[in-house]
Write a structure and sequence with these properties.
The structure is a homodimer. With about 150 residues, chain A is an alpha+beta fold. Helices cover about 25% and strands about 40% of the residues of chain A. Chain A has a seven-stranded antiparallel beta sheet with strand order 1-7-6-5-4-3-2. In chain A, helix 1 (about 15-20) crosses helix 3. Chain A starts with a strand and ends in a 16-residue tail after the last helix. In chain A, about 40% of the residues are buried. Chains A and B meet through strand 1, strand 7 and helix 3 of A and strand 1, strand 7 and helix 3 of B.
């Protein structure tokens, strides 16, 4: 099983973190500004990424659901070929004054270089999520930190 | 196989990146200031981490070698129990004006929460490595970005 798993701790109530990963508005505050659609089974959220110059560099469509308390699940419906069949998960729990996020991007078919790029980018976006919830201001695309020649 | 793999691109000649991951002085510029010892087979480099208040929060000893051209290998000799038997690898190649680093921390026995923490911290340190090589100033411990209640 080829997975990306990151742990991040956010100094905020769990409910605030939950809303940031399970709602259209929340996601637009840390992942990409161009986030539209609706969460829920049978619905979908569409995210589009643009270069700082405004060129579209990628998009994904996903079904956002909450299979259990404190768990948020994104099922990838369309996007980069390597992402099809993968799932993105957020497992939340509280430790003292932190909400701990166990972030997963799971079930990649192969250990490809694009996965290594996404691993690094997800860490950058987890920092952005932490900043959004703790300070009110994240760094969603196209204002995200660039980490290599791909993005 | 439980691995952490990140891809980062650094706008600098390959040799500069190589020196930053294969030498004592280089490592002290992006991972932890308290780096001593020598690289090479049969030698070891020791890294110690301190809290911002000066308390030691961890240390590792490793053999740093270069099994092939453009590859740097850290064999973990001592450190956190979960790190024993793991290896850290840096595979470098050039793409246009970037040196691409495929960073690996490989052969974890289990998908433990500590590994998810390390995955996030390694991404932070890859950013620090990128900053060091591109600007001359990284963010080694204890000046590293904190990402959760563990560090």
């Amino acid at each position: 099983m080829v997975n990306i798993i990151h742990r991040v701790g956010i100094k905020a109530p769990l409910q605030k973190v939950y809303e940031a990963v399970a709602s259209t508005e929340g996601i637009s505050g840390w992942w990409t500004k161009d986030t539209t659609g609706k969460p829920g089974l049978g619905q979908s959220i569409i995210v589009r990424f643009h270069s700082p110059e405004g060129r579209e560099i990628g998009s994904m469509e996903m079904e956002v659901s909450t299979p259990e308390n404190h768990k948020v699940h994104w099922k990838i419906l369309s996007g980069p070929q390597e992402w099809i069949g993968t799932e993105v998960t957020f497992d939340l729990h509280q430790e003292e004054d932190y909400t701990i996020v166990i972030f997963g991007h799971k079930n990649w078919r192969e250990e490809v270089e694009f996965k290594a790029h996404c691993s690094m980018k997800w860490a950058i976006f987890m920092l952005s999520l932490k900043q959004l919830v703790e300070t009110g201001k994240g760094k969603p695309s196209p204002g995200d930190i660039k980490i290599d020649n791909w993005n």
